[in-house]
Amino acid sequence: MESCPSIKNILLLDSEGNRVAVKYYSDEWPNNSVKEAFEKSLFSKTQKTNARTEAEIAMFESHIIVYKFVQDLHFFVTGAENENELILVTVLQGFFDAVGLLLRGTVDKKEALENLDLILLCLDEIVDGGIILETDANVIAGKVASHSIDAAAPLSEQTISQALATAREHLARSLLK
Amino acid sequence: MAQPLVKKDDDRDDEADYSPFLGIEKGAVLQEARVFNDPQLDPRRCSQVITKLLYLLNQGETFTKVEATEVFFAVTKLFQSKDIGLRRMVYVMIKELSPSADEVIIVTSSLMKDMTSKTDMYRANAIRVLCRITDGTLLTQIERYLKQAIVDKNPVVASAALVSGIHLLQTNPEIVKRWSNEVQEAVQSRAALVQFHALALLHQIRQNDRLAVNKLVSSLTKGSVRSPLAQCLLIRYTSQVIHESANNNQAGDRPFYDFLEGCLRHKAEMVIFEAARAITELNGVTSRELTPAITVLQLFLSSSKPVLRFAAVRTLNKVAMTHPMAVTNCNIDMESLISDQNRSIATLAITTLLKTGNESSVDRLMKQITNFMSDIADEFKIVVVEAIRSLCLKFPLKHRSLMNFLSNILREEGGFEYKKAIVDSIVILIRDIPEAKESGLLHLCEFIEDCEFTYLSTQILHFLGIEGPKTSDPSKYIRYIYNRVHLENATVRAGAVSTLAKFGAMVDTLKPRVFVLLRRCLFDNDDEVRDRATLYINTLGGDDAVVETGEDVKEFLFGSLDIPLVNLENSLKNYEPSEESFDINSVPKEVKTQPLAEKKAPGKKPTGLGASPAGPPSTVDAYEKLLSSIPEFANFGKLFKSSAPVELTEAETEYAVNVVKHIFDGHVVFQYNCTNTIPEQLLENVTVIVDASEAEEFAEVASKPLRSLPYDSPGQTFVAFEKPEGVPAVGKFSNMLRFIVKEVDPSTGEAEDDGVEDEYQLEELEVVAADYMLKVGVSNFRNAWETMDADCERVDEYGLGPRESLAEAVNAVINLLGMQPCEGTEVVPNNSRSHTCLLSGVYIGNVKVLVRLQFGLDGPKDVAMKLAVRSEDEAVSDAIHEIVASG
């Protein structure tokens, strides 16, 4: 099993370290309190770093963790100590971008919770029992949002244009304030 | 909508705390789940309720068995709805609930229908769900569909089936192995991810067939694998093949190296890195092979992406351990990484530089590190401190600047682990670099002036007591030590009193001054401090005259306690106050091997045996009592050692016998612990017939039969041998159990009157050199070593031949000698090429023995060993060498 790259968990936390959505694929964390403790210490270790433009990386409790932040959302992907870091970051980027597409550019905690079903489906499409299922954000988002997985490509384009529209709208509102 | 998920407007003000799930409650959501049972399903509403349920589970809420079952049954109703979005949520929900076997049946038919549906999304998800929750029996029913799905033209469906196959291989390997034709076809798929999943599954199916893996790798490395992930897998399999074939063809080019090197030019960074890492990890990699890999890693060092920099520097750090020269080209890039925002990267860069640096660059490096230390966390600092320690040992001439650095960081803020790492490093440097001693000791003295950790203060005081008196001017340390008596808590004060006494004992000119100080300590308000002061004043002589300190006083102050503290504690607890004072010599010195014996016990049959392994009282004390109660053995003298029980029968046989070897000065007694495991039999007059023809120096003198051995109640029989006094005679003994069998009526438990004589062959038993060695630890090996006479030292070198690993060789020698490893040196760190192991013990005739073993790898597998022995008797030193030479 060890020769196949595997993901131990994917975490989406808010700016206080609380869960938005998490998924564990490894039984190294046997119960919820252990998981919460892991998330807490991981969050406090990483919160001061600047992981907004590029994904960051850390060794933590003999795991390799890659992470990226946007607004008040913190994305994490955990792998084994000897895992290829670049594979992990590909998974992280896939998750991160897919969420961006699904939330149409407004990626923050509120939006994420309001569309929690999409986030959960997104997690379900990225990794199955620790094995990487898909890393292309467009395909992931397509599979989640579409009512038919075959029509992935056009939808993602549509989402981008809508995302731009939403962004424009936000900008306009902030200027009016 | 009856209950809007999104509350608008009124929550706008406190947007920060706003959540659509605010105030959500499990009971209420479970109530809401009733909508699943409505005849007219509202897909939107149902989706929302499932989301809420999933939210609760995600937050760590748990459902009771009843609740989970209820929700599960309600959710299965939703298969009626044709809404695709809702169906997706249903799939996720079923996976989260992980229903029990009897519940699974309810959804099986629905899922099987979806699995054959025309909609790709249904097929893909139904396969994943079904394979997750199913067991082996159902699998045979759906196997046909899964095989079809693997070669489905829709990549999502194929991937779903393949990934499920990978999971199922763990539980139902024989079924999944039947799919290998389809999987092989999928490896050729045009879809990237399908290729990746198919390759992973195919390799797992064939991983135990080396030839097949070899074929797989050779065919794929020629063709083009499209997916980067699949390419990474292929690189991993290739390095496995290289690793396994390494033993066969030593000479010539490495097979598949060209493939790995070619991957360094792949367009995906993931693949480039995987290949570079694989090359650096090749067994016995040459510098020519390393160069291209190092070159790409060097490029990564200046990447804008932290992850790339981290991956590269981490790999180079590992390379630097074995091939420091290969990494020196990257030094300039590494130095710029010292200021990296990501402190993990910076720390890895620094420790790499410390490994590759040469003597001339040390000073410049130290300057850079000093700036860097203030803004990293303790855990990183510890790594740096350890790297500096090994650097200092490598370049002893640089000890001044490195020691200064250590003392500077010792004065700064830091937690216990960090400070301990620094103090440990300084102590090691003082020990190994004589020139560094005085300055190092002064740094430690300054540190304890302002040290908040009691543990560290007492450790340093103890160390000062040993090293301080040997310096050129011991008096300058007295002030630091006596200050502790004024200013610290009782533990440190007591430690300081002991240290003062050591100075008094070793430096005669200081003695009167030490006395004055010790007297003041008599008024301390702590018992321990006062007691120690009183004790030392009396042992040191009591008057102010300058007298030389007696040898036994020195022994008392500096000698190591060669008694395991656990044993001392037990003996003290057992001691009853009486006229007779406690005799420390009565405390057994053997380190207990009890836990090992206990570990073996559960392997045996649980019937009665497990409860007490053949019932031997296994501490040395108890053995001694047992043996001295037998008149035949009473005059053998003091028991030297009793071995751990050695099994003479296989587990699960009719009669279970193990033997304990008791060694006396001129005798050996075998204690056979026998257990009869047949309820219908009673054994009488049980003896062991020992054939000592292969043990020439032994002569049988007595044996003590066991009168009766009923079912399941262990008994002992003994055989005693005479051997030359004080000589560690060795030999092999074959054993035969002889007894009279009587049938027992199981209903009444009564034995018949007539019995039949019978024999039962037991395994051979050996008396080996290790039986004459007591495992007795010393607390400070170096001290003990130095106090032994160097004239009795015997050094020689041995080649141990090819060995599995260094650790295996170390263990073999420890077991051969039967000595106690000291200071944790029996543990061999991974990947190390050399190791030093310290052993101590007491040889027959009560001769203390210390052994220093230095192991080194010579070539790829050959282990060479240097054995240095010191003991109180040179004949014994020679004997130890003989044991190793003949072992």
TrEMBL record, chain A:
Domain of life: Eukaryota
AP complex mu/sigma subunit domain: residues covered: 7-145
Membrane topology: Peripheral membrane protein
GO cellular component term, pick one: COPI vesicle coat
Protein's cellular compartments: Cytoplasm; Golgi apparatus membrane; Cytoplasmic vesicle, COPI-coated vesicle membrane
InterPro entries cross-referenced by the UniProt entry: AP_mu_sigma_su (IPR022775), Coatomer_zeta (IPR039652), Longin-like_dom_sf (IPR011012)
Keywords: Cytoplasm, Cytoplasmic vesicle, ER-Golgi transport, Golgi apparatus, Membrane, Protein transport, Transport
Role this protein plays: The coatomer is a cytosolic protein complex that binds to dilysine motifs and reversibly associates with Golgi non-clathrin-coated vesicles, which further mediate biosynthetic protein transport from the ER, via the Golgi up to the trans Golgi network. Coatomer complex is required for budding from Golgi membranes, and is essential for the retrograde Golgi-to-ER transport of dilysine-tagged proteins. The zeta subunit may be involved in regulating the coat assembly and, hence, the rate of biosynthetic protein transport due to its association-dissociation properties with the coatomer complex.
Assembly and binders: Oligomeric complex that consists of at least the alpha, beta, beta', gamma, delta, epsilon and zeta subunits.
Annotated protein name in UniProt: Coatomer subunit zeta
Species the sequence originates in: Gossypium hirsutum
UniProtKB/TrEMBL annotation, chain B:
Any Pfam family the entry gives: Coatomer_g_Cpla
Membrane topology, record value: Peripheral membrane protein
Record's protein name: Coatomer subunit gamma
Highest taxon, organism lineage: Eukaryota
Subunit structure and binding partners: Oligomeric complex that consists of at least the alpha, beta, beta', gamma, delta, epsilon and zeta subunits.
Start and end residues of each Clathrin/coatomer adaptor adaptin-like N-terminal domain: 27-540
UniProt keyword Transmembrane present: no
GO biological process, alphabetically ordered: endoplasmic reticulum to Golgi vesicle-mediated transport; intra-Golgi vesicle-mediated transport; intracellular protein transport; protein secretion
Keyword Membrane: yes
Similarity comment: family membership: Belongs to the COPG family.
Disordered: annotated segments: 593-616
Compartment(s) of residence: Cytoplasm; Golgi apparatus membrane; Cytoplasmic vesicle, COPI-coated vesicle membrane
GO cellular component: COPI vesicle coat; endoplasmic reticulum; endoplasmic reticulum-Golgi intermediate compartment; Golgi membrane
Key words, A-Z: Cytoplasm, Cytoplasmic vesicle, ER-Golgi transport, Golgi apparatus, Membrane, Protein transport, Repeat, Transport
General function of this protein: The coatomer is a cytosolic protein complex that binds to dilysine motifs and reversibly associates with Golgi non-clathrin-coated vesicles, which further mediate biosynthetic protein transport from the ER, via the Golgi up to the trans Golgi network. Coatomer complex is required for budding from Golgi membranes, and is essential for the retrograde Golgi-to-ER transport of dilysine-tagged proteins.
Domain (Coatomer gamma subunit appendage Ig-like subdomain) ranges: 622-767
Molecular function GO labels: structural molecule activity
Limits of the Coatomer subunit gamma C-terminal domain: 770-884
